[in-house]
Write a structure and sequence with these properties.
The chain is α/β, with parallel strands linked by helices. The protein contains 20 helices and 8 strands. The protein folds into 3 domains: 83 residues, Up-down Bundle (Four Helix Bundle (Hemerythrin (Met), subunit A)), CATH 1.20.120; 194 residues, 3-Layer(aba) Sandwich (Rossmann fold), CATH 3.40.50.300; 150 residues, Orthogonal Bundle (434 Repressor (Amino-terminal Domain)), CATH 1.10.260.
Length: 471
């Protein structure tokens, strides 16, 4: 998980501050030394780490903080604000042409994920902004690069323009003409990369840029390369004047140094981050939300957006109606599991919920648990799914044998459903009492109707806890 090591070290430093009550200047400086060390261990650029801690220290030893009733919380607030500022302040949006098509040129080294993220971006623009993107195969050197773009383009439901091994400048020019003729309002050029930065690569990219005058030049860099990623970004920016960065493999980089350094070193914003291998695993980069994640405060807004983009809205409405009517059985739970799996790994989903992320540090969440629970439910008869009260010992033994699980696991799942049903009834009673002038708790479809403000006590993630979640 991104920033895992950094988050742990920052939280340890802040914990010591909280334990002190009133703070002295020496306390703040000692904490900032720990923060600087944590940043350097996370592979953050040395100058960036030094400037960051100096800014925080300067603000934190001010009179307002030292005389505050909760000085440690004020320091954390300052760190949050400075982290947000370090990563760009506000999320940087794509610049679209006033007259279509908008031309987006993707560049980067080989292996950074350029081709895959071209398709990811095309899919996102198509599904969230109703754009009509065209992917263009300008990488004529890497074996099977064109075929790879065709495969990911087909998966994303986006057409691919290719002219074999023609000159990339000509391919780009003809692709723009094709887009105008066929109504494609976004052209995404997947250009060639190299194993290292060289003059031939840069000259070709400069020629393509001069020919089609792209609205956006997005540099795709691998977050797992740490400081090398920042150096690559700096070199490309000097030659091409990139407009933004797509940081890939952020889910696999536990350090996160590139995300914290690239904006400060290059002056160019991170616009998107790749968070997984699937074509839907691309997020708009929000500096404030990322700062919250780093500080262990969760990221509810991104979680909600994921739910809105990836879950079936009609099914969510049907589920909400059932919950309001106190009707929730194993058929509904089975459907919820299918929805959850669309949103990606469980640990990633739960880590975005405030108060939950830190509880997951020492918990091994196996995503196959959902498959096992689905197997138990699918081994039930339709009557048993609708009416769990029918379950007697012989039925439970049959279900356990049919699913390849144990009777104890069957009992645990039944108990979890009962807990969820009770919780739903209590929520509905509270909703009826507070109808006048009070909003109902916000429900997140696909998480068993779990109220977002009721998830702080996640308890036993291994299956025995009091969260109402059967994991």
């Amino acid at each position: 998980m991104a920033f895992e090591g950094l988050s742990d070290k920052l939280n340890n430093a802040f914990k010591r501050l909280k334990n002190k009550g009133r703070l002295t200047e020496a306390d703040v400086r000692e904490a900032m030394r720990e923060v600087r060390l944590a940043l350097l261990e996370a592979d953050v650029n040395y100058k960036v780490a030094k400037d960051f801690t100096n800014k925080v220290t300067e603000r934190a030893i001010g009179q307002d903080v030292m005389e505050s009733l909760t000085p440690a919380q004020m320091v954390i607030k300052i760190v949050d604000e400075e982290l947000t500022s370090l990563m760009g302040g506000e999320n940087a949006r794509l610049e679209f042409a006033s007259k279509p098509p908008t031309i987006i040129m993707m560049c980067g080294l080989q292996g950074s994920g350029k081709t895959t993220h071209s398709a990811k971006l095309a899919k996102m623009l198509k599904e969230t902004q109703n754009r009509r993107p065209l992917l263009v195969a300008c990488d004529i050197y890497r074996p099977a690069a064109i075929d790879q773009l065709k495969v990911v383009g087909e998966k994303a439901g986006v057409p691919v323009f290719e002219m074999g091994t023609e000159n990339p400048v000509k391919i780009a020019r003809e692709a723009v003409k094709h887009a105008k003729d066929y109504g494609n309002d976004v052209v995404i050029l997947d250009t060639a990369g190299r194993l290292h930065i060289d003059e031939v690569l840069m000259n070709e990219l400069q020629d393509v840029k001069a020919e089609v005058n792209p609205n956006e030049i997005l540099l795709v860099i691998d977050a797992m390369t740490g400081q090398d990623a920042v150096n690559v970004a700096k070199s490309f920016n000097e030659k091409l004047e990139v407009t933004g960065v797509i940081l890939t493999k952020l889910d696999g980089d536990t350090r996160g140094g590139a995300a914290l350094s690239v904006r400060e070193v290059t002056g160019k914003p991170i616009k998107f981050v790749g968070t997984g291998e699937k074509l839907g695993d691309l997020e708009v980069f929000h500096p404030d939300r990322m700062a919250s994640r780093i500080l262990g405060m969760g990221d509810v807004l991104t979680l909600i957006e994921d739910a809105q983009n990836k879950l079936d809205e009609k099914k969510a409405e049907q589920m909400a109606q059932k919950i309001m009517n106190n009707r929730f059985d194993f058929n509904d739970l089975l459907d919820q599991f299918a929805q959850i799996k669309k949103m990606g790994p469980l640990k990633g989903i739960l880590s975005k919920i405030p108060g939950v992320g830190k509880q997951l540090d020492d918990v091994d969440i196996n995503d196959r648990q959902i498959d096992w629970l689905q197997a138990i439910i699918l081994s039930m008869t339709p009557e048993e799914r609708e009416n769990p009260s029918l379950m007697n010992p012989s039925r439970k033994r049959r279900i356990a044998a049919g699913s390849g699980r144990t009777v104890e696991e069957v009992n645990r799942l039944i108990k979890q459903l009962e807990q969820m049903q009770k919780m739903i009834k209590q929520m509905n009673k509270g909703g009826k009492k507070g109808k006048k002038g009070k909003k109902r708790k916000m429900m997140l479809p696909g998480l068993g109707g779990m109220p977002m403000d009721g998830m702080n006590g996640m308890g036993g993630m291994g299956g025995s806890g009091g969260s109402g979640m059967p994991f």
